[in-house]
Amino acid sequence: MEETKLYLVRHGETEWNAIGKFQGHSDVPLSDLGRQQAKKLALRLGSTKIDAFYSSDLSRAMETAAIIAKEHNSQVSYLPDLREINFGKWEGLTFDEISQNYGQLSTRWRANPVGTQIPNGEKLQDVAVRCQRAIDEIINVHAGETVLVATHGGVIRVIVANVLGCDLNNFWKLRLDNVSLTTISFYRDQKAILELYNDTCHLK
């Protein structure tokens, strides 16, 4: 049975990550710590055969992918569909600031993100559609290969929730750390198996 393996990597830490700000489509670069984290994962995967590298087109994911791809003398392809959720007016705010400024709306979104619209933001169902489109594109181009995808916490949670058949309203219950490694194997019959989730042993 032909297997296509995806290594899903959440980008390294940014300064906004460190202080708990929602980033979304805001193009926040890696911090120095984030670059160090990415280098540690690059060393871990240095002897692993990886056929292609992809990332979202936001700099924190692009740089994470580039650091890892450098160990393999490879280039990175960019897919806008792999961007983080667009958090609209919530971007640049912390969780507490969102709760204070958007009270009931933030409560509804936490309980039902699929059915709640963030001001100027993106619906979670639309995120799921574009994430699936990106994964399908990668699998179609690289059938039977191993591909590393550097992207964002919300994106990886949505992809994993879809693979497991979980209610997307619960996707925030999936913890995902910076520069964590998640691996999923996809097969021709649409079967997919989650093999590893949120592994950060390279950071210890």
- DSSP helix fraction: 25-40%
For this structure, what is the CATH class?
Alpha Beta
Q: What is the CATH homology-level superfamily? A: Phosphoglycerate mutase-like
Uncertain residue ranges: none
Q: Roughly what is the average pLDDT, rounded to an integer?
A: 96
- Distinct helical segment count: 6
Beta strand %: 15-25%
Strand order of the largest sheet: 3-2-4-1-5-6
**Number of domain modules:** 1
How would you sum up the major sheet? 6 strands, mixed
Q: Which CATH-level-2 architecture? A: 3-Layer(aba) Sandwich
Question: Order of helices and strands, N to C?
Answer: EHHEHEHHEHEE
Q: Give me the count of strands.
A: 6
CATH topology: Rossmann fold
From the helix content, strand content and strand pairing, which structural class follows? alpha/beta
> How does the overall form come out from the CA principal axes?
globular
Question: What is the straight-line distance between the termini?
Answer: 35 Å
Radius of gyration over C-alpha positions, nearest whole angstrom: 16 Å
